[in-house]
């Protein structure tokens, strides 16, 4: 096989490998991002439930103050009861007492309701905090796994960079410029195999004459349709 063509195939394979590293790393980071997002959602729920609990507790305090006021009122009514002068005053006082007692009953019911509400919210809070702790534990584990994988990917990447730069040291300049011109539009498919007598860049059939030249591999052959550099893979030649 033409030496330049051999170099081009190698270079193209290195470049393709290099383009694959970044998506691989992004993919690893994305694994972690899902867990981090879940943890953030749980944290937001916890914060809003804290505010709700505060609100319930402040309502309960207000009811307690109200209850104390009503009790004082009842005491005052009891005192007034001693110096009632007539039936009319007595009835008015009884009505006042009745209303105060109703209000006390209502305030007590409200306090019970608020206590239950706070209890439920605090139970939810506890569940969410446990969930968050588990999630954060998972994040730690995944972080370690992701960091290790990324480190491996970076090692591989350094090897490919090293091999690529070694290859470029003895690379023909004209051939490199030629390759880079095609690469500008063809990206990672500047050098493509021919399979079933078709260019694997544009997927069009190539004529018998060009195909024969590709198989011979004595020269660098471009696809007559798209201009990509063509080669025949060794394994396929043997088959
Ligand atoms: Zn083509």
TrEMBL record:
The keyword Iron does not apply. Keywords: Coiled coil. It holds the Pfam family CT398_CC. Gene3D superfamilies: 1.10.287.1490. Residues 198-230 form the C4-type zinc ribbon domain. InterPro entries: CT398_CC_hairpin (IPR056003), Oxidative_Scav/Glycosyltrans (IPR052376), Zf-RING_7 (IPR003743). Residues 67-170 form a coiled coil. Residues 27-183 form the CT398-like coiled coil hairpin domain. PANTHER family: PHOSPHOLIPASE C-BETA-2-RELATED, SCAVENGER RECEPTOR CLASS A MEMBER 3. This is Zinc ribbon domain-containing protein (DUF164 domain).
